[in-house]
Amino acid sequence: MVNIFLVDAPAQWDSVVVELRGVEIEFVPSGREGQVESMFLPYEPGNKQVNVSLLVGGDILPISRREFQIGNITKATLRLGENNFLYQGERGYPLRLPNGQTDFSGDLSIRLEPGISYDVIIDFDLEKSIKTTQTNPLAFSFQPTLDIYSGIGLGTVQGSISPTTLQPAIYAIRDSDSLSTHMNASGTYVFRLEPGSYTLFIDPKDEAYVADTLLNVQVTEGQRTTADRVTLSRR
Q1: What is the mean pLDDT of residues 50-56?
Q2: 95 pLDDT above the threshold of 80
Q3: CA 59, 64, 69: angle at the middle one, nearest 5?
Q4: Which of 23, 87, 90, 234 is buried most deeply by CB count within 10 Å?
Q5: Which residue numbers delimit the DUF4382 domain (predicted)?
C-alpha cells in the first residue's frame, strides 16, 4: 500500500488555497527493468480547493492511497489546477501558475515489498513558492516549490515558540540544505527529517523581536525529538 500525504511550510500570509487535482506516480514493476509505468491517483473529494496553510504543527492531508505491485517507485508528480489564491485579510489575490504549468515533480527511490505500507510525503514550501512582485497594488508570483520524499528512515522534531501571536519562520539547517515550516495557533511546529544534527533558526518575521537559534538538535530514525521551547525576546 502506498499512501500520499501533503504537508506544508506556510508563509507569512493569512491563507493560501490551491486546486489539488492529484498525484501521478511513476514506477518500474519487478522483473521489468527499464519499463516505466504511470498511475494517476486523484484527490477524491469533490471540492478540490485545499487551504494548505492549515497543514502545520504535525497536521497532514491524505491525498490518496493505492495498492501497487512489487517494484520501484521512481518519481511523483503533484498536479494542480488553475484556481489558486492567496488571501490577506478579506482580500484575495490570484496565484497564476508559471507558463500554465500544472505538474511539479520530484524523483524518488522506493523499493516496494509485499505486506508493507509506504508513505510518500509532498512538502509544499510556500515560503519559497510565493514572492511579492509589487506592493501597490499588491501582486505575487507563484512558482510551486516542493520536496518529495519517502517517509521511511525519517525522524521527527517537535517544538514550540511563544508568543503565539507571531508568525515566525522556522528553518532546519544541515550543511548547505534547509527546510522551513511555521507553527500552528498553539505555537507548535513539526519537522520530518533525515537522521543527523541540525541547527534550528527562528526568524520572527517581526522587527520588534530578535531571532533565535537552537544548536545541535539531534534527529534519530523513527523517533521524536522534542526541542527546547523558544520564547522570542523583544528588541
Answers
A1: 85
A2: yes
A3: 130
A4: 23
A5: 2-135
